[in-house]
Amino acid sequence: MNPDLQFLQSQVQSNCHISDANFSGSFSLCGLLLRMRDLYKWESGLAPWEEPEHGLILEWVEQREELWAELEGQECKALKFDNACIGPFEVEEVNSRCAALGCLYGAGYVLGMKPSFFLALPVEETVINGLKIYTVEHELCRDIFVTPVMRQGDRIIARRQAMESLIWDVVQEQRPSVRPALDFALAGYGLDSRELLQRPNDFQSAYQHMVREELRIWVHHEIGEAAEDAFPGDVWHQMVANTCQTLAEVFIRAVKDLLADTHPHGLLAFMAARDSKPSLGLYLAMMRPLSKLLFMEIFRIFPEFTRTGEWSEVERVRTVAYARGRELAQKLVDVHRDSDPFHHERTVERIIEEIIRPLGILGEVDAEEMRR
After folding, report:
1. What is the largest CA-CA distance in the chain?
2. Model-level pTM?
3. pLDDT digits over 224-246, tens only?
4. Residue-number span of the structural domain to which 281 is assigned
5. pLDDT digits (tens, 9 = 90+) for 340-368
6. Which end of the chain is more exposed for a tag (fewer CB within 10 A), N or C?
């Protein structure tokens, strides 16, 4: 490996460790263990379907917790390039230096305002609607929190390894509530969940084809997000920062996701235009709990969709959900603008009581599930 790239890798991975040390407690115990298992597999070069030896992963967990104890409380460090030091969130400036090294850098704040970083080798670059889409295969650095697709300004990064792991986790979990949607999605790619779990290596051609196709489709969530204007300026970032690690933050993020998915140029519209029926099943199977509560219509019409394959009802509920998302976003913006900037707990209380409670979903919200 190029010595300069190796030095950058060590710096980025150090920031990943610092972030994990400071925010591991923000996950539920179940969520943390699942993420640690996935991180161990990635570090060990294991495929998502390859289970590690019990003794080895226990030893690794113990060592990682010791490392986190040493790093807890530290701040993420600036990245050194020759004689320059660049802040870890100055993504554009860092990537201007990464170009000569042939790598791509990503940084941002995820759920709970946890800093998240990665360094990867891009294999494909395209442009859609003025947005640069980078597909990465091999990741050199990552932290405990990964998402398959992320946007940074006019740059969208699609992470194949993350998508491969996420889909496998859904297949392995076999939640009864989404089993019909998952089976429908897999069947569209010539796969069966039982056979895939029993003999994963026998079906890798079809599975990897599904991963590549779904990653290309999921990019359109970020394209829809980039086109959405319900949260003007920097308002959305201010709102999630002010409501960090609360139900209100999860709700704000879920509303933004709903708008991205249901935007006329977003994920669902692209699925329909492409007639990608399996993708709709996978979308439902992978939907997070609060997002599901905000978009129950799509689940109600799905059984009929599996019989007819017609997108007209999907389009109808998409427009209904998009209008709802716009309305919820406006209410959130109104509360934000009317809030005391020095008393964020009051803002959280208002969002819960004035916006979430009237939806009638509070009793169905599982606090532990939200922290996974």
Report:
1. 63
2. 0.94
3. 999 999 999 899 999 999 999 99
4. 174-370
5. 878 899 999 999 999 999 999 988 876 55
6. N
